[in-house]
Amino acid sequence: MEPILQIKDLHVSFQVKGGEVKAVRGMNFEVGKGETVAIVGESGSGKSVTAQTIMRLIPSPPSLIKQGEILFQGQDLLKKNNKQMEAIRGKDIGMIFQDPMTSLNPTIKVGKQITEVLIKHQKLSAGEAKNRAIEMLKMVGIKNAEARFNQYPHEFSGGMRQRVMIAIALACRPSLLIADEPTTALDVTIQAQIMDVMKEMQQRLGTSIILITHDLGVVAGMCDRVIVMYAGEVVETGTKWEIFKNPQHPYTKGLLRSMPRLDQKKGEPLIPIIGTPPDLIKPPLGCPFAARCDQAMKICERIDPGATVFSDTHMARCWDLHPMAKEGQSS
Amino acid sequence: MARYIANKLFYTLISLFILISATFFLMKAIPGDPFMSEKKVPPAIQERLYEQYGLNKPVYEQYFKYLGDIAQGDFGISMKKINQNVTDIIKDTFGASLKLGLVSIVVSVIVGVALGLLAALYHRKLIDNVAMVLAVLGIAVPSFVVASLLQFVFSSKLHWFPTMGFKGPMYYFLPVAALSAQPIAFIARLTRSSMLEVLHADYIKTAKAKGLRWYAILFRHVIRNGILPVVTYLGPMTANIVTGSVVIEQIFGIGGIGKQFVQAITVRDYPVIMGITIFYGALLMIARLVTDIAYGFVDPRIKLTGGKGD
Amino acid sequence: MEANQSSGISTPADLKPDDFRKIGTDEKQAEIIQRESISSWRDAWQRLCTNKMAITALIVLLFIVIAAIVGPYIAKWVFNYNYYTNDLLNTNQRPSAEHWFGTDDLGRDMFVRTWMGARISLIVGLAAAMIDLFIGVIYGGVMGYFGGRVDSIMNKFSEILYAIPYLLVTILLLVVMEPSLPTIIIALTITGWINMSWIVRGEIMQLKNREFVLASRSMGAGSGRLLFRHLLPNAVGPIIVTVTLSVPNAIFAEAFLSFLGLGVQAPVASLGSMINDALTGWLYYPWRMLFPAIVISLTMLAFNIFGDGLRDALDPKLKK
């Protein structure tokens, strides 16, 4: 698969009072053409920061991109200046945000918010842009699109607004769509609709998608591959099936255990992961998950584990997977 | 929208009615009669005066007559200025006050918004700090102190501007500066906090994600939305400037309506006090009404309360 | 792609089997230690203390209050002037060792008069703020607590009243009632309480659906108890801020009335009436205006800055 996005050893920090929050600490992953990759993790794990860093949307300061490369279609986005980034945002990479209630400008008509991006990147006339925008609204499943074009965001429901956001993000047919928790703020029934819209749009336009979420249910329905993040690090990656059927990292296992499933046996409890993630101003020396891990060993607190590879696509970073782990436990 | 306006208009009229009634009955409640302070008046003349001012009729009749007269724009006759109609006094002097007030309003909005915007864009930088110190000073230092200080420094010592009067462009600077100081400070603070809120809003992130240029985002999304709260302040600001001008006109010797008001109060010329009070009241309520309606137009979310449901 | 990561797996040479021994929970690195919990009031106080501007303002305010209380006595003890002592041979004197702030057109000592004026202005400001507080809390509390029809009628009434320009009503009342300290305070509060009532109403409406109130209600607490024991104490923050910010408004309004001759009447003087008196000869005798003007500006400045600081300290969310 030909990657359109490659992220190599990305480190991002935030300058705050009392130090530097190391929010992303050595991310590596890639996204293939037409592929959907999920980045999963709890709040504060660095998944949103990664997404916004790709778009270069985090203001700097306070954020600092310490090192790494973000290769998009072979070009390093971190080396682009503002103007070059403007030409890429919205045109080659689209983005959807978490809260549709606040991500649309309340005082501008919905249609204009779509044509804005078309006029900027595709140099369309106002009339052409309007036609395209209405076409986009229809595509994302908004009925009566011509009338809706002239309405304000407050006249739309949350799910409808998120459809509008998708229309805006995909209006210029970008090759990559970054969806930052696109369904978190929505009702469960609406969530499925939005995911369907995204899937359908992907099939039509062939867009690659990075889906950021903490909801494994969303992942199961839509993604090809999964990246599990914890405390700014990738702890496990694999195809959807590898992650769901054969999770290797205790954190991934924990996430799966805490999620309700349809095939769950009656009376089988959901098990939460106890504790909170580490303070990333002083990230732990060893494995960041050690403090919450019921499998933790002495070494986990000292040295951050390297990757253990199970297949071309499946990797996890945990000392328990090390050959010596079994010996230690038996002694 | 129509219902929204009708609703606002209705309550404005009630407020105005209450003000007029309160004015009338308060004046009637003053012990003694308005001519007591005059030197001895022969009974025949007093009778004629009573006749002229309608004081010999029952109070309720006087009240309805007064309401009727006001509806026709007649505020009665001055008690101290011979043969002077209150309406004429207002007409003759309102021009100067209006010019002063309008210029002050325009200056306040432009300078205040500009200062607030700069402060927000350079948040926590030098410009921000300077602007906010100025704003606190502007809010705290009373306008008459500002006026006296300006007069002392710029006309008495430096002779840059004339001290008194209202005869040409140069006469505007000091009174306008004194009148605008407080509104500028308010608007600057309001604009700053609202712009900061907008700058951190999610939809600005959306706009950035569209790849729009920064100045396009600034003008189309940030300023437009950040200015909305300023619109709500236009009504109170007009009140502030109008009442402020009462004192400022006195300090700078401007023959406006405010000066007439002060004189009337000093000599207790009741019809003039009543007339100007009602005139001011109506003016300010209209300013508020216009502000409310304007806000309904600039902020599409307001329309919802106007009855047109989704 | 992950394949190349596997080469990075660090297997240090000194890895011992013991390293892979499971550790008990007690050995585990403790979770992030909870911050020492402090009450919200102490928290607010600490935030206030870090705000240098607000603390400076508080010190200035205390200084003005103390000076307004003892200032006139100092002059009396040191030079034996009092408030009314006039010396027609020494009118409009510049500030000197004998008359620290100079004298006015009747030869009265400006130092004594300035601090007496400050006293009067503070009394007006504080008394008006207290009456606003009293009426506003009750009216707003009732609106917010009962809600529904009661709220809508009372709220409409206050809106109608509020639409009438504040200073005009005050002027009218004083024309009728003849200005004196009590009538000025009453006239200032005639519509001044409305703002406070809206603040209280908003707070109560927010609070009354919170769990602790529902819990208390479900245990049978009566309306009065709920309002005064549970709701109002939790709305104290915004109320204090509003009071702090309404004092300078009343001081300003009184000064404004002095310009219309409707302030406190001679021989009593407030800062506003002193400034008004000084206005006629001000270009020749600037000190007559300067000292009262400085004191009134400082007072209003300090109240405003301290009020802003209080608001930031009590509601960190609002801080920008």
Automatic annotation (TrEMBL), chain A:
SUPFAM superfamilies: P-loop containing nucleoside triphosphate hydrolases (SSF52540). Belongs to the ABC transporter superfamily. NCBIfam families: oligo_HPY (TIGR01727). This is Oligopeptide transport ATP-binding protein OppD. It comes from Paenibacillus vini. Pfam families: ABC_tran, oligo_HPY. Transmembrane segments: none annotated. CDD domains: ABC_NikE_OppD_transporters. Residues 5-256 form the ABC transporter domain. Gene3D superfamilies: P-loop containing nucleotide triphosphate hydrolases. The keyword S-adenosyl-L-methionine does not apply.
TrEMBL record, chain B:
PROSITE patterns: ABC_TM1. It is a multi-pass membrane protein. Its main location: membrane. The chain crosses the membrane at residues 9-30, 100-122, 129-150, 170-191, 237-258, 270-290. Belongs to the binding-protein-dependent transport system permease family. The keyword Electron transport does not apply. It comes from Paenibacillus vini. It comes from the Bacteria. This is Oligopeptide transport system permease protein OppB. Gene3D superfamilies: MetI-like. It is found in: Cell membrane. The keyword Transport applies. Keywords: Cell membrane, Membrane, Transmembrane, Transmembrane helix, Transport. Residues 94-291 form the ABC transmembrane type-1 domain. InterPro entries: BPD_transp_1_N (IPR045621), MetI-like (IPR000515), MetI-like_sf (IPR035906).
From TrEMBL, chain C:
Residues 1-10 have a biased composition (Polar residues). The keyword Mitochondrion does not apply. CDD domains: TM_PBP2. It is a multi-pass membrane protein. Its main location: membrane. Keywords: Cell membrane, Membrane, Transmembrane, Transmembrane helix, Transport. It is found in: Cell membrane. Residues 1-20 are annotated as: Disordered. The chain crosses the membrane at residues 54-75, 120-148, 160-177, 183-200, 226-245, 251-275, 287-306. InterPro entries: BP-dependent_transpt_permease, MetI-like, MetI-like_sf, OppC_N. Residues 118-307 form the ABC transmembrane type-1 domain. It holds the Pfam family BPD_transp_1. Belongs to the binding-protein-dependent transport system permease family. This is Oligopeptide transport system permease protein OppC. It comes from Paenibacillus vini. The gene is oppC.
